[in-house]
Write a structure and sequence with these properties.
Blueprint: E1 9-14, H1 22-35, E2 40-45, H2 47-54, H3 61-75, E3 82-86, H4 92-101, H5 106-110, H6 113-118, H7 125-128, H8 130-139, E4 145-148, H9 153-169, E5 178-181, H10 209-217, H11 238-246, H12 250-253, H13 255-260, H14 265-291, H15 294-323
Parallel strand pairs: 1-2, 2-3, 4-5
Length: 330
């Protein structure tokens, strides 16, 4: 009789924005690929969350979901090791969201950092309730941990708080999820802000080598370093930050010559270009392969949906019984 492997469960999610970029790769995907070896993983493409901002323009959502799935697989997520699925195809997410919304106060939600940051431009109930849906995403799979950056700490606190409230009011049903913080490299875009598609300062994974080189040439560098020979300051330079991810021993190979002025910014960018393109080539090759076999990608999402629905359905059975709203015998 084979031994049952006991693993904790992780829930990860990302809003579908189409093809991903280097910031997404290093900020989340690399970590997820490593975590799938140690945990039972559910990787959710959270299209319902995306509607908080894009509810007026949904015509491109299907392609955005597909492109994200392609990049998930290209980066190394293995559908044999983790369930990759679309949030809206598991209706239990919205059911638990509704039930959780009864347990939270409006003032608590208005104090959430994401609401405070964007309340002037996004004022729908969907946006206000975004953290409650996120809590439902997590608790629906009885996740032990959620891999996030420190900026999401408050949202994991809310999920834990809602699990505690439910357990106290009804019956102990949910685990209380914990944030799984990991060291995420700082990735800045061409304008020295956080790399983001919305800023158009990003390097998409789908870029060719020539497109990557062109984008790197446009990157901000030290304004005091006008020409080769001028001393530079690598700390805080977005090119050097990328060197720290893609270049071996950048503190010895890049930083000293930058500081003395021996290494000009163009040459520095071209060194990075070679290393970055070399690192991305396996992902790009996999993308090409997957784009030729789109049915396989949709099949992965269907299989992930079925696995997610099985766990989510079992969890909702427990929720309804705990709340005494399970009315019919099966």
């Amino acid at each position: 009789m084979s031994e049952v492997i006991k693993k904790e469960t992780i829930l990860s999610g990302m809003q579908p924005t189409g093809s991903l970029h280097v910031g997404n790769l290093e900020g989340a995907l690399r970590n997820w690929v490593n975590l799938q070896e140690k945990y039972w993983m559910y990787c959710c493409i959270v299209d319902l969350h995306a509607l908080t901002a894009d509810y007026k323009d949904t015509k491109g959502m299907k392609d955005k979901v597909f492109q994200m799935a392609v990049d998930f697989l290209s980066a190394g997520l293995d559908p044999e090791k983790c369930a990759i699925f679309i949030q809206s195809e598991v209706p239990e997410h919205t059911e638990l969201h509704l039930l959780f919304s009864m347990l939270i106060t409006v003032p608590t939600l208005t104090r959430m950092p994401t609401y405070q940051d964007k309340k002037e431009t996004l004022d729908s109930y969907g946006f206000l309730g975004y953290p409650v849906l996120q809590a439902a995403d997590i608790c629906l799979y009885n996740a032990d941990k959620v891999p996030v950056g420190k900026d999401q700490e408050k949202h994991i606190w809310l999920a834990k708080d809602l699990a505690q409230r439910f357990n106290t009011i009804y019956k102990k049903t949910f685990k209380e999820p914990e944030a799984l913080f990991t060291t995420i490299p700082l990735i800045l875009g061409s304008d020295n802000r956080k790399m983001s598609k919305s800023y158009d300062n990003h390097i998409p994974l789908e870029f060719t080598e020539k497109q990557t080189e062109k984008r790197l040439r446009s990157f901000y560098t030290d304004p005091k370093k006008q020409r080769q020979g001028d001393p530079g300051t690598p700390e805080g330079c977005p090119i050097f930050l990328l060197h720290k991810v893609y270049t071996e021993n950048p503190e010895q190979e890049i930083a000293p010559e930058c500081r003395t002025g021996a290494l000009g910014c163009v040459d520095c960018k071209m060194k990075l270009n070679a290393n970055l393109n070399n690192a991305l080539q396996p992902i790009r090759d996999k993308r090409v392969e997957l784009l030729k076999n789109q049915d396989f990608v949709w099949d992965v999402l269907a299989t992930g949906r079925d696995r997610a629905r099985q766990r989510a359905g079992n969890m909702m059975d427990k929720v309804r019984k705990a709340m005494k709203i399970s009315y019919r015998k099966k």
